[in-house]
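Ticket closed. Logging final result for Molybdate ABC transporter substrate-binding protein.
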Amino acid sequence: MKKFVQWMLLFVMLAIPFGCDKKTNEHAGRTELSISAAASLTDALTEMKKVYETKNDHVSVTLNFGSSRKLATQIDQGAPADIFLSASEEDMDKMNEKGLVVKSSIVDFTGNSIVLIANKAVNDPVDSFEQLYSLPFDHITIGEPDAVPAGRYAKEVLEHLDLWMPLKDKLVMGSDVRQVLTHVEMGNAEYGIVYSTDAFISDKVVVVAEASPSWHTPIVYPGAVVKNSNHHDEAQKFLEFLASEEGKAILQKYGFK
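Final structure:
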């Protein structure tokens, strides 16, 4: 009996690592793609990830969202990434100039627009950007212009309308466009300037005005394979999916141009 118990214990000890190795081997062949993407792409890319992984069961996609300039800085400092999706051509151009992305892979895959939003609790909100000068309110929030593309576009709009200096003391800066949206949703600011896609996904704000495209730099979203990626081929395939009709349909579903 004692020998039987010893043999059973030995069998269990051998079986456990065998089972773990098998589980590890099942996932060993999967390619893990890391995508650093502008915060405004959060909802569209989250759905796209699910669709892509279903169609490509050998690929696992990890999403890292933030302001385009912050993500570019992270990649420049060695943060692992296979794909960079920016909300501005300016940040992609700087990445390309530094040799951090594969130039031939750069593709403009979508666009956006800038809108003025208000918290739904605001009584009689303004109905134009120009009215921000004449009607009373306490705070308006935008992305930090030096770090957030949406903030740069917002500043351009306000400067075009000669509102930047008059409103400067009322500005609340956000670290990315989603934080700007949150400020308005929570009532930390009565108004905010965001992408139309951000307003599209919120039921706590209302769009009161849309900026004319002539008031700011064209809003173009470029994507590229990161040069230090270990998965150039798979990264390129994801970019092709992003720019495909199926990818465009998902982006349009979330309000992208």
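The two ends are 75 Å apart (CA to CA). No further action required.
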